[in-house]
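Hi, here's the filled form for the chain we discussed.

Project: internal
Contact: R.S.
Residues: 355
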Amino acid sequence: MNNRNTSVKINKRLIGIDQPPFIIAEMSGNHNQSLDRALAIVDAAAECGCDALKIQTYTADTLTIDSRRKDFLVKDKNSLWDGYSLYELYQKAYTPWEWHKDIFKRCRQAGLICFSTPFDETAVDFLEELKVPAYKIASFENAHIPLLKKVAKTGKPIILSTGMIPYDDLKYSVRVLRENGAKDIILLKCTSSYPSIPKEAHLMTIPDMRKKFKCVIGLSDHTSGTGVAIASIALGARVIEKHFTLARSDGGVDAAFSLEPLEMKELIVSAQKAFCALGQIQYGPTRHEKSSLRFRRSIYAVQDIQAGEQFTKENISIIRPGYGLEPKHFYAILGCKALVHIKRGTAITTKQVHL
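And the returned structure, exactly as it came back:
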């Protein structure tokens, strides 16, 4: 695995450890079954400065059956979807396939990369007709081997969310992708609860995934706010996916944990700052710190010292500013004789003493 690619190109955008974070706005069901709203979300994502917009391609019938038997009901008081049947939830959340072409077109016009998450093989066939540049595999589908094989055989970049999947199963899923033609794979650390809490983000997994899988790593973040996403950048995440809406007050299946436009702008600005701040290994003063060196301590005469007089703890001291010899020379100077007359307040340099 040492020869795996550690950068991925989607359209003309290079994604990798030495590249700025790639920010994906996830529309999901926040269009609230309005194409006009969906297109407005595209425009807002572009205005915020996102790199990409992602939608989902499925129907309720490709995911489940219409049943209210107990197996098909969401029963979780902590869930946003408590009381729904799976079929009802997916009917409410899905993006009509006839909208896809308009959404893709608007993204191109706005300068956004647009791609989708297929949930079955028919969705892949449909998306291939639309010439998607990449595919996203959802956490709930990351062990769906027929789907993985189908997507891998397109040869396009694949972004795989890793929520819930044990390490050995993830290793198997990645192997399936690679054995079926996938060369460019991005893994997203993900916690598949909605919303999720920072304590369960376990971002330390990110550098471990990068080491073990030798590929680009990112974060699919379902926490509220931007703090977890920003923290992930310091650990090597170079793709950030966040659900996005025009306003949480408008409601929608994912609205509660989605970012609004001002928050998305904040995320993008902060992500760029976080990436820029990583820099490189640096000891000693930076270019802008050099002017501050004068405020460090150095060795100064604090009494008048005659030529030939010994330096003592009484006539020299380590004080600010920093124009004299560095403090590390203090004990080496003690007992030495001054080469010249030195007035109080003079920086001690090699002109006044032999070290």
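Let me know if anything looks off before we file it.
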